[in-house]
Amino acid sequence: MTAQLIDGNALSKQLRTDVSARVTALKARGITPGLAVILVGDNPASQVYVRNKVKACEDTGMHSVLETWPVTMTEAELLARVDAMNRDPSIHGILVQLPLPAHMNAQRVIEAISPEKDVDGFHIASAGALMTGLPGFWPCTPYGCMKMLESIGYELKGKHAVVIGRSNIVGKPMAMMLLQQNATVTICHSATKDLKAMTLQADVIVAAVGKRNVLTADMVKPGAVVLDVGMNRNDEGKLCGDVDFASVKEVAGWITPVPGGVGPMTITMLMVNTLESAERRAA
Ligand code: NAP
User: Fold this and answer.
1) In this predicted structure, what is the pLDDT of residue 276?
2) Are both 175 and 243 inside the same structural domain?
3) Are 50 and 39 within 8 A, CB to CB?
4) Which of 175, 178, 171, 153 lies closest to 242 in space, CA to CA?
5) What is the distance in A from the centroid of ligand 1 to the CA of 283?
6) Does residue 47 sit in the same domain as residue 100?
7) Quick one: 107 and 170 in the same domain?
8) Which stretch of DSSP H or E encloses residue 274?
9) Measured between alpha carbons, how far is 85 from 236 in angstroms, rounded to an integer?
10) Triad 139, 45, 261: Cα angle to 5°
């Protein structure tokens, strides 16, 4: 069996077309959705990420502000910038690019973002809203995974989903979203004793670990849906996921590639969250 691909680039394009149309409609009412991106330091990967986010704003017709600050910036200075963005009516979403330099407390900075503008969905109020099923911003990467499942018309009710990884930005919110759609959810992590025994029971597997080949073909039930969140480098320095794609695609029913899978969906969902923040304000 050869799995069908869930193409994150194609789905992103489709979703961004819808975002652009809704941005145009808001602009006609005098509101331009705006995203503020704050980068501290000169981490090259972070520089690429923030550039891509700003470009996505441009492509969808949104307003964006990119602030780059030297690594010597103090936490108090950063908190003052966040506060200014909280009060700026042209800004509907605020994103502080992580990781922050070691002298800053990232959680304290995230908590300073107004929950109404927390388009990354990392604020404790956003996490609480997701946990309790209240409206709020969902973290972009797991939200993108949910959109991928929706795009293939996958019915989660009664299915067994196994999430590998329990970070606050991917694994845990992913599990909550799957649970909200009535899947039975198992969360695995580094202390899980027999990962294969868990994944073999899964109708849906989400791999969010950050290690190559965490999931191999012998660990996958035939026909399962496999979503690969991982971003790693292979021996040739090429981007790859957590899943042994070549072997797993022979067993799975659906699979996301890396690159071109979950990655593009993350920025797309950031655009969706920013747009929805502006729409809420306009309502
Ligand atoms: P993280 O904070 O490092 O969390 C990794 C998780 O994997 C932890 O919960 C860890 O368990 C678990 N783990 C580690 N080794 C394991 C093993 N052998 N078996 C089972 N579980 C294991 O990472 P993250 O931020 O969630 O990101 C995960 C991956 O997704 C990374 O490759 C990251 O680059 C990628 N990512 C991609 C996107 C995207 O847009 N595509 C966005 C975000 C992240 P413990 O909790 O026990 O340590």
Assistant:
1) 98
2) yes
3) yes
4) 171
5) 37
6) yes
7) no
8) helix 262-282
9) 42
10) 50
Q: Is there a single domain that holds both residue 151 and residue 247?
A: yes
Residues annotated as part of the active site:
53, 97, 120
Q: Running DSSP on this structure, what letter comes out for residue 115?
A: G
Domain that holds residue 109: 31-117
Same domain, 255 and 147: yes
Asked if residue 170 belongs to a domain, the reply is yes
Task: Count structural domains, the chain.
Answer: 2
Sequence-distant (6+) residues with CB within 8 A of 213 are: 242, 243, 244
Residues 92 and 51 occupy one common structural domain = yes
Q: What residues does ligand 1 touch, defined as CB less than 6 Å away?
A: 141, 164-167, 169-171, 188-192, 195, 208-211, 214, 229-232, 262-263, 266
- Is omega for the bond preceding 142 within 30 degrees of 0, making it cis? no
Q: What is the per-residue pLDDT for 160? A: 98
Within this chain, do residues 148 and 81 fall inside the same structural domain, yes or no? no
pLDDT digit string (tens) for 175-232?
999 999 999 999 999 999 999 999 999 999 999 999 999 999 999 999 999 999 999 9
Give the CATH number, domain containing residue 155.
3.40.50.720
> 3 Cβ partners below 8 Å, 6+ apart?
226, 248, 249, 250, 251, 252, 253, 254, 255
